[in-house]
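idk why but the lab printer keeps eating my pages so im just putting this in chat instead. protein + adenosine-5'-triphosphate:
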Amino acid sequence: MRELQAKIIEELGVRPEIDAAEEIRRRIDFLKDYLAATGAKGFVLGISGGIDSTLAGRLAQLAVEEVREAGGNARFVAARLPHGKQRDAADAQAAMDFVAADEQFEINIEKPVAAFDEALADAGHKALSDFNRGNVKARARMIMQYALAGDRGMLVLGTDHAAESVTGFFTKFGDGGADLLPLAGLNKRQNQALLRELRAPQQLWAKEPTADLLDGQPLRADEDELGLTYPQIDDYLEGREIDPAAAEAIERRFTGSRHKRTVPATYWDKWWRS
Ligand SMILES: Nc1ncnc2c1ncn2[C@@H]1O[C@H](COP(=O)(O)OP(=O)(O)OC[C@H]2O[C@@H]([n+]3cccc(C(=O)O)c3)[C@H](O)[C@@H]2O)[C@@H](O)[C@H]1O
Ligand SMILES: Nc1ncnc2c1ncn2[C@@H]1O[C@H](COP(=O)(O)OP(=O)(O)OP(=O)(O)O)[C@@H](O)[C@H]1O
Ligand SMILES: [Mg+2]
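predcted complex ->
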């Protein structure tokens, strides 16, 4: 195994082999323990129709149901947060049905994002690039989730997992802005295995991963943007040998995105100097 590969696997806590049922139990227990330790009233999460939020959402709903069965009081709020008309709205609705959250919303982020465009234009700023505006959309979703959570004494879940962490493939303080990460350490195929164990429909666990943040390229596949396939990233994270050029690309992304996996840099931190 490559030297950096071994370090990454340890830092991200990836296990090369998992028992899906055991992982589901560990992660539901983590959610329940966190509620017990903090006294929070439950969780909020945006549901896109993609693999990660379907899994994290279902785990959250199962966790709060177990809390209530034991006499406690916790609820889960799931929110569809489309920007305008979502092309894969049918998948998002199927995910909402599968997650079966206690409280459900559909809140469109098109107007809040347009308000930023207008404020910039009013100040004489040129229009944002489609790419940067995509990150504004991700951050608008973060604000909406915190708005829902703040009024309820709830916590915001994040869907970051090892295959996104290693590549830094998330928006800093957007979908990366969350209170706890129930999918930490899992790679993409492990997320899929957990969803299958939970009896999710194939439409959801086999769905093509997409950030879907660009107006110009709706539903652009993550693999297309990354120039890497998830099987390559997953194999790398399981300690296998992959095409050296792909391994180098993963390692470049890992090193370049370290700032996203820490609290903001200070003068006395050492990590950013190397
Ligand atoms: N060395 C450094 N130390 C401290 N901060 C640093 C930094 N370099 C950049 N930054 C800051 O970070 C910012 C860039 O980071 P960021 O804003 O995240 O932007 P960036 O990483 O450029 O773009 C986000 C990427 O994540 C992908 N994404 C986003 C959301 C969801 C998903 C998905 O999988 O569904 C994927 C998206 O497609 C895109 O490729 C810079 O504007 C700067 O403020
Ligand atoms: N249209 C949307 N509606 C609600 N939440 C969204 C939407 N798009 C993204 N999100 C939130 O941002 C998170 C990050 O998006 P990401 O694409 O990484 O995950 P996903 O869509 O759940 O799964 P996949 O990576 O397989 O597409 C989602 O898990 C979800 O919580
Ligand atoms: Mg997605």
